[in-house]
Amino acid sequence: MSTSGQRSSDAGGLTHVDESGHARMVDVSGKPVTSRTATASALVRMAPATAELLVAGGLPKGDALPVARLAGVTAAKRTPDLIPLCHVIALAGVEVEVDVDAEAGTARVVATARAADRTGVEMEAMVAASTAALTLYDMTKAVDKGILIEQVRLEAKTGGKSGDWHRDRDASGGGQE
């Protein structure tokens, strides 16, 4: 345990829990500022006819793709308002892309967040991807009630004490990361 009474994950304790078992925000003031990136994705499944309308911008609510991208960027900036123990991070950039495969009836959302800070941007990327996916649902639900949002996941991260991690080479699938 450190002199501040905080448990250390290196000592086997939980970093977001104090000695009394109460949730707390980790103090990162002693950590160095480093360049950090994170990429997350979400998969949205829908009927192929819905995906065709999505690509064509022909949904009743309008062109959903730019709205979903903007929603993802906006959400990334609001992450500490949504996830209680996240730090406020000075995001340097957020990119959200949506790749629609109309034939398969899928839309893959990929969000990347970047910052130079004392803690990572994984949650910002995850919130961006999931919010963009939810926006796609909201804008397509009038024509397709059976839409699924699945596989919201971290794809890669760089920077920080734990270094780089990439799903395709460092993870076997759905286990702990």
Provide a quick synopsis of the model.
The chain has 177 residues and is of the alpha+beta class. Helix content is 28%, strand content 27%. The protein has one domain: 2-Layer Sandwich (Alpha-Beta Plaits), CATH 3.30.70.640.
Q: Can you walk through the features of this model?
A:
There is one protein chain. The protein has 177 residues and is an alpha+beta fold. The protein has a single domain (32-160), classed as Molybdopterin cofactor biosynthesis C (MoaC) domain (Alpha-Beta Plaits). It contains 5 helices and 5 strands, in the order βαααββαββα. It has helices at residues 48-56, 64-77, 79-82, 122-140, 167-170; strands at 34-45, 91-101, 106-117, 148-158, 165-166. Strands 2-3-1-4-5 form a 5-stranded antiparallel beta sheet. β4 and β5 (165-166) form a beta hairpin. α2 (64-77) packs antiparallel against α4 (122-140). The radius of gyration is 18 Å and the shape is elongated. The two termini are 24 Å apart. Residues 1-11 have low confidence and may be disordered.
